[in-house]
DNA sequence: ATCAAATGGTCTATAATTGGTCTAGAAAAG
DNA sequence: CTTTTCTAGACCAATTATAGACCATTTGAT
């Protein structure tokens, strides 16, 4: 949705981008933003547009702009213990997924409904159309694992997986993960996703869990291979 | 309504997809949706269809559309970090622990150090002095499981377990849990804790994981027994 | 202290974008 | 068949964006 490469950015879009930079911490308290003329250039928008975005952010209390000087960040993002999660390494994340997802498969067998399976089926189809589009595949993959945990009807588990997805969406990671996604790897993942879905459909908890373990092992290998290069 | 594959999307489907984007967080408050013409293109539907979906979402209060400007997100999805965790039921929590803790045992075998084991040993001793003090036992028990996950040296897992511990510390739960803790039950738990610690010490990952499963099964039984009374 | 550069503030005429509305026909559902 | 829904286009009105200019203040170097 937001992927749209050369989509023209409006004031609202630019405001949203900067707002996120601030909440994420890439722009910290008292930092000065680039000059309006530079921003307008780098966002590919006219200065007036950037200016409108900044005016909005000022009203919202994110920034303060001083004439002749610049625009400064004035906002302490609520520290939601995010720090603990932000520093997670890819390997830590893999271990957490190893703990959670196989058992989530078992629970999905117990509590999953037809509509859940249909949605997962649709996501499998979508992923199979993405052999050459790592970015789109990655999004669909995240959705698939989210749909899987939704089968469990366990709000706590869903929340945990969402938190993990947040970590995975960090920019650096996303870029690195896309590097590991060649055509071959995506094809392997697709096969495994199908197998997992089928095992859940036929109500075979242990088989589903085992394929998930395989799936995660594959992912871990891709990861270590990528960090070697 | 057939959901499968790349079928044509109806207004209801598109509304559902966008609704999902919003609750998932990919579309946040104040974000502007892509123009109707772009949406219609990317969903492969006519503009009128997209428009119908948006009208629906507006009635539902997810979105607000301003003529000449765009369609904007007006909905703060319930901040899960509070609500999802606060509303977790004891059984949901048990399932989450079933997913996490056995694998945490395996990881503890890999990464645990002598000092970790000493600390857990000490906690075992403390718990064994608590046969008649459910409150003190409960505290030590929480510490034990926290010490266990610390063995993994995995900040993400530690954070997750801490979150779960927060849930467990809710007043109602604590009271209920204390009811299940008679002398016999505590003794059983103590035995299991010892066994888990020993299995980790002797570097037997699967044995440790299995005893943890037993342990959790025992806890689950106590729980269901308690809710029957 | 002075000057030059950089930066935000303001304005304007024009062009582009966007939602709102309508229509006629095709497709799907009952 | 009838009814509903979707499609594909067109046009309108409101809003927004563009590109450039000029000003006032701040900043930093000389």
TrEMBL record, chains A, B:
The keyword Transport appears for this protein: no
Record InterPro entries: GntR_C, TF_FadR/GntR_C, Tscrpt_reg_HTH_GntR, WH-like_DNA-bd_sf, WH_DNA-bd_sf
Keywords recorded for this protein, A-Z: DNA-binding, Transcription, Transcription regulation
Residue span(s) of domain HTH gntR-type: 8-76
Alphabetized GO MF terms: DNA binding; DNA-binding transcription factor activity
Protein name: HTH-type transcriptional regulator LutR
Superkingdom, natural source: Bacteria
Keyword match Transcription: yes
């Amino acid at each position: 949705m937001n992927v749209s490469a050369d989509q023209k950015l409006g004031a609202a879009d630019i405001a949203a981008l900067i707002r996120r930079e601030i909440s994420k911490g890439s722009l910290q308290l008292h930092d000065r933003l680039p000059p309006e003329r530079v921003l307008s250039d780098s966002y590919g928008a006219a200065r007036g547009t950037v200016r409108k975005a900044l005016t909005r952010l000022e009203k919202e209390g994110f920034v303060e702009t001083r004439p002749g000087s610049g625009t400064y960040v004035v906002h302490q993002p609520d520290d939601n213990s995010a720090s603990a999660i932000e520093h997670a390494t890819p390997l830590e994340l893999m271990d957490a997924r190893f703990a959670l997802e196989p058992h989530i498969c078992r629970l999905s067998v117990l509590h999953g409904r037809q509509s859940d399976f249909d949605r997962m089926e649709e996501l499998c189809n979508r992923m199979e159309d993405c052999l050459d589009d790592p970015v789109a595949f990655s999004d669909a993959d995240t959705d698939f694992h989210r749909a899987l945990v939704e089968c469990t009807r366990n709000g706590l588990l869903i929340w945990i997986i969402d938190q993990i997805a947040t970590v995975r969406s960090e920019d650096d990671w996303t870029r690195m993960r896309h590097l590991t996604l060649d055509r071959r790897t995506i094809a392997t993942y697709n096969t495994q996703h199908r197998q997992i879905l089928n095992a859940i459909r036929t109500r075979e908890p242990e088989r589903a869990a085992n394929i998930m373990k395989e799936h995660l092992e594959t992912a871990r290998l891709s990861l270590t291979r990528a960090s070697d290069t």
